[in-house]
Every structure is written in structure tokens, then in C-alpha cells.
Amino acid sequence: MTDRSFDPNTPFEAVANCARDAIIILSTDSTIQYANPAVESIFGYEPETVIGESVSVLLSDADAETLLEWFDQYLTTGDRSTDWGNIRLHGVCRSGETIPLSISLSDFTRDETTYFSGIFRDVSEQQRRETRLTELNRLAQDLTDAESFQDVCQRTVDAAQTILDHSIVSIELYDADEGQLVPCTWASDVDELSDEEQLFAAERSVPWNAFVTQERTLLSDLESEPDVEHDETPLRSVYIQPIGSYGVFIAGATETDAFDEATVDSANILVGNAYSSLERVDREESLREQRDQLADKTASIDRVRRINTVIRDLTKALTQAGGREEILSEVCTRLAASEPYQFAWFGSVDQTDAEIVPQASGGGGNGFLEEISVTADDDGFGHGLIDRVVDTRSPQVQNSIYQDPPFEPWRQAAIERGYRATIGVPVVYQDTFYGVINLYASEEYVFEQMEVAVLEELGETIGYALNADERKQAFTSDQSVELAFEVTNFGESLLGLGGDSDGSFELENLVERRDGTVTMFFTADEPEADDILEWLSKQSQVLDSRLVTDRTDDRLFESRLERSTIWAQLLQRGSIVCEAQTSGDSARLVIRIPRSADPRSYDALLEEWFDDVELVARREFDEPVMAPEEFEAELQDRLTERQEEVLETAYYAGYFEWPRETNSKELAETLGIAQPTMSRHLRSSEQKFLSMLYDDT
Asked: How far apart are CA 523 and CA 363, in angstroms?
């Protein structure tokens, strides 16, 4: 049969010539006796060149030896040790490439000679499909364990390199903040092609268009695409598939026409699995965030409930406290006793010595205050958190003391004592700043938004208590101190009226109103009244002004001032402004305070407003700051707040002068009430005041 001459009408030859599989007939010594034309399409050999050669020319050495052993065993014993219907061996092409084969063998006898016939089928594509299906199934199982977008993308890219027979694979995810696709995971070959880890240089290129349109894109020759610049990508063919709203999957090749239908189908299944897994991870992440938020909110509510309980107890204690020291001591002790707080201290600002002075503490300080020194320099107090509280008058939080390098001495001392988080809370009443409550906790991230808000309210409550104590001391003190200051930098105060207008300024009186604003009565001799009113209208602290009377020697003005002014703060703290007048470039300011009050706190308050302030005189008096206690208490008990305000404003506005400096209409406008209402309040207050003088009550 080594002669290939045949009758074309022979059925065997007709079938063999049309077959896609290689049909080979072997002698018992494995010599090829016949080969059909398909041998060339599978192995690369022309049939004539292999006839007379050993079958080992078409098989790997090991598989050829195995096949010969099967033949010998069969010829000797008649036993077939394997299924000859589907033998899996490895073929070797003329190019040297190894291919998987499925061989179906049979034997026959002709002219008393035994031969073996075999159908050799290239199962590369079948095996590739099997590998793809196996890998896709494995990926689907692996993706169930993925816990993040990064993990899903990495597993998908790794599988794609096996499934698609392409090593240039990348996944880009949509970044909503940036508004563009950002590389998430890519194969190592991408690094060799691009320094930017992106296969397309332009942000709005082929991958972006596929993402926006949500359409699969297969480009077999990128150089022929009119919308793709020549230097935009190193790829020559590409397949891009959107992964829903998450991003795009990119598979590329440096040669054209690299993607057949089977590859595209496999990629579709691959991306479908990735999309499902990304959705699952997204849902699980959302659920985790919701659970974490719920847990955080529950913990925050528990902490706020706890701190609210502490504040309720503190409020009761503050109403019964016997003075400033007891107020601050109660606050620090009770706060430090509430977990997870460990230590609390209160510090006031001493402008004279430029430092924060600790005045009370509670809890396990373990020498903390002795170890730190909060002294000011050009950059502040050297304690970043306290600096911010003093500057902003708002709570400042450091929820993880460990996170920042502990260069500041206070931070090192805090870490050594087990403090993990801290907050500075301003103690303020209206616009009077008393100091800072510094609170330290043993846990990180304790001071969340709700807790900070509650502690801020506590700071205001403490400020109210301190202010109430100051007023009480001013009301009950039998002795007072008069402090005289020289001011040479007027800042934004009305004392600047004298300097800015080349005139003079002299305070007549201050009236504190119920809304916290202050009505100031003052005289000024120059310049013209209209010019003074225009100057006043440009001052941010002045709400409104009017000329009360235009006397020959001076003019009396009335201005309503913001509650944040120095004048309001002095009244809020229980002091009396006895004198305030300008003379050239300087001004003299005299205030009367209770003897129990700390003069340094008033000095610090004036320093905040006037920068250049000097205490030039101090005198002590054996009399209270205010009128005799019994008379004033009785009067205030009889008058309503509105009646007292009307009576006091009328007096200082010159309503009782003759001739009157303010009529009833103008007085009503000043008070912001109707004229009949003002008259009724004024008559009632006059009757009550006079009854105290003349009635036997």
C-alpha cells in the first residue's frame, strides 16, 4: 500500500480525500503506509512525504513509544489495554508545535497482512473550549469568595489570561469623583506596553465610548479606525466590554484580527461573572456600611445619653455651687468620672503672662498638668488644639492622638498616660470667653458629631454659671475695686470716635437690654452731628444711632450696640463702667468690679479688644458695686423686665429733663414698641418706684 495510486471511484479514497481528520494506515512496525490530504492541514506535511516514515514523525517520542507498545501487546496477546476509540496523545507538527490529538484506531488484514488504521483528530479547539469552560467555572466559584472590587478585578484578569489566550488584559473602573475611568487591575504585559498603566492615552477614547454607550466594542484593526490616533495605544486589535456602571473590561493584542467568535463568547461569560460579583460585593459593602453606621449611631446615642445624664447632674450641681472654684471643680470631677473619659481640666487665658492657666482638674492626671506648660509665643500657645479653641471659640477634636507625630510635649505626655482622644471645649457666655475645658478619653474616635454638640452646649452652660456667679458676687459684695486703664489703641470700639473725627467722646451710661444688646448714651462735641451719625453708621458693632439732644456745649447720642461688644461683655460680667472718655490719641477707661473678682480676667478681656492697654490705677472701696441690696432687690421684684428697661432708658435718654431731651414718640422708637404701650409701662414703673418711697410697705 506504499503506492498511493488508487482508483478515484474507490469509496475509501473518495471518503478519505474529503475528510477533515487525518486518516493514516500503519504497518505493524508503525510505518506509515497511507496518509490522506488532511495530514497536511493538521501536521503541515504533504501526504507523500510521510509515507514510508515511522509514525513517530507525527507524535512526540514518548507517545510514539507508547503506541508501539500497544501494538506489540495486541499482536502478541490480542489484548487492548486501552480504549482504542479515543486515545489522547500529543502530535508534533512540522513547525515543531505540539498539538493535542484524539486518535481512533482499528486493525484489518489484507493479503494476509495485518494493518492498523487511525483517524487522527486535532482537538486543540475542543481542548481550548474545555479549558475555558473549566476556568470559567472555577472563576465563578472563586468570585464568590471575593470581598472587594480590587479582589474581583484581580481574579477576573488572572482568569482572562488563561481563558482568552491573551496576556494583554485590563479592567478600568469608573471613579465618580474624578468623572473618568481609572485602572483597577491589569496583567503584567500591560506594564511593558504603557508607563501609565492604561492601554489608551486619551481619557475620552474607545473604552470611554464603550462605557458611556454600554455597547461591546470589537476593533480588528485600530490603525484603520478614524477616531483613534496612531500614537494613542500600542494595541492593534481590541475587545472592550462594559461591566455595567462599574467600568470596562479590555482585552487587546499587538496584532490585527486577534479575536475570534469563540474568544468573544468566552469574554462575555467572563465579564458577566465579574459583573455579578461586583454587584454582590457592592451590596455587601452597602450592608456593612449600614450596619456599621447603625452600630456607630447606637454607640453614639448611648454615649450622648450618658453624657446627657452627666450634664443633668452637673446642671443641678452648678445651681447649688458656692462660687467659681466649686463650679469648675464639680465640672472636671464629674466629667472625668464618666467613662470613657479619664481626665478633665479647665484652663483660663492669662493675657498678662501669655499662658493658659490650669484652674481646676479631675480624674487620673498623674502629673499631666505639671509636665506640660501651655505658654504663648508668636505661633500661639504651643498646644495646637487649645490654640484653635482660643482662635475659633468652637470645639476642637483630636480623635486619635497617635495619628499625628507626637512632636508637641503635651501629646507625648498624653500618650504616656493612656489618653487616646481629646477635645477642647470653649467656655463662653454670649461673647465672654472664660477659658477651655480639656477632656481626655481612653478610646479613639469617641468625640463624634452628636457628642461634640452636647459638650459644646455644656461649655455654654458652664459659661452661664460662671457669669451668674460673677453677677451674684457683684450684687452681694460689700466691697468693690475700681480699676483705671489707659488705652492707646482703640481698635473697633466707639472710643475711636474721638480720634477718627478729631472730636471727643465721653460715656454717659450703658443700658443692658433683654436681648443682650446694649444701649449706649454718650456725648461728642465735634464734628457736626450728621458727620458723627454717618461715622456711627459705618461701624459694624453699631446697630442703629440717633441724636438725642443737641446742646450748646455738647451733643448727646444714643447707639444700640451688638451683644458682642466690649461694653456688653463688661456688663455681662457684673462690672460697672464708671468712665470712658477720649483725650487726643489716648482714652481713660474706669470700671468698678467686686472685690472677689479677678482683675486679671478684666485686663485680659480689655486686651482682646484694645491691644494696647495699661492698668494705671487701682482703688478699693468699702461699698458694693451696685445700689444697696435690699432696695434694688425689692425694686426688681416689683418691676417686670420690660418696665425696668423702659424706666431706665427713659431716664438716661433725658425724658425726665426739663425741657425734655427725648419725647415719648422717640422713646417708643428706641425701645421698639408702640407709643401707648411705652406710656403704660412707664406709668406702671413710676407708680411702683414711688410706692417704695412713700408707702409703708
From this structure: 54
* pLDDT at residue 587 in the model: 85
Q: How far apart are CA 437 and CA 439, in angstroms?
A: 6
**pTM passes above 0.85:** no
Please name the residue ranges forming H helices in 611-674.
Answer: 629-638, 641-652, 664-671
Whether 585 and 602 have beta carbons less than 8 Å apart is answered as no
603 lies in some domain: yes
> Do residue 206 and residue 259 come from a single domain?
yes
Find the domain containing 356 and state its range: 321-474
User: In sequence order, what are the residues at sequence separation of 6 or more whose Cβ sits closer than 8 angstroms to the Cβ of residue 683?
Assistant: none
Q: By the 8 A CB rule, do 198 and 204 touch?
A: no
Query: Residue 25 carries which side chain, given as an amino acid letter?
Result: I
Q: Domains in the chain: how many in total? A: 5
Left, alpha or beta for 502 (phi > 0: left; psi -120 to 50: alpha)?
left
Instruction: For residue range 307-322, list pLDDT tens digits in order.
Output: 778 778 777 777 777 7
User: Do both 536 and 612 map to the same domain?
Assistant: yes
Of 451, 474, 497, which marks where a domain is finished?
474
Is residue 581 located within the same domain as residue 642?
no
43 and 155 share one domain: no
- Both 265 and 184 in one domain: the answer is yes
Distant-in-sequence, close-in-space partners of 157: CB < 8 Å, separation ≥ 6: 169, 170, 171, 185, 186, 187
The cell numbers describing 280, all together, are 454582590
Domain membership flag for residue 135: no
The answer to whether the beta carbons of residues 588 and 580 sit under 8 Å apart is yes
Q: What is the pLDDT of residues 340-357, one digit of tens each?
A: 888 999 988 776 556 778
